[in-house]
Amino acid sequence: MSTARPQPGQYVAYFDNYISRVPAGAEPLTVLAEQPAELRQLIGGLTEEQALTAYAPGKWTIKEMLLHIIDTERIFAYRALRIARGDQQPLPGFDENAYAEESGANARSLSDLFQEYDAVRQATLTLFRSFTPAQLDRTGTASNNPLSVRALLFVLPGHEAHHRHILRERYLPLLR
């Protein structure tokens, strides 16, 4: 049996783009567990030089995008933890472009970034597996909008799927 999708009101409409990328009937924890192999297949074989590719001036490099996925997963997992534990303090947003600019991703090896990605993903899976059904349905406030733990469970794999799509459509054609 798959985890029920979040209901309207448990998240802001902006997240529809991510939630819709989790196939109907798919178990989001299974999707999260399968994504590391899929991401490695997509970009794991790139050279360090190729991983510094940006598809247009002012856009992130592949390394910066990978670290953005990591940073966002950490932030969303932290939000899920706080909300699941009943914390009703409003949680602030974050500026992903400022994070990317300050990340230092381009000075790191792709191997090092994947090592961090694996550690964060394992922690995320362990955290979400620990939540009870009641905790999944808890709703808090993030970026001045309602957000449930259940919505975050779907947003996380959808966010990565969104970026894998961008990699396939905009970055990888430049490397052929």
UniProtKB/TrEMBL annotation:
Concerning InterPro entries, the annotation shows: DinB-like, DinB/YfiT-like
Task: Outline the extent of the DinB-like domain.
Answer: 33-166
Transmembrane parts of this sequence: none
Point out the coiled-coil segments of this chain: none
Q: What is the protein named?
A: DinB family protein
**From which organism does this entry originate?**
Hymenobacter fastidiosus
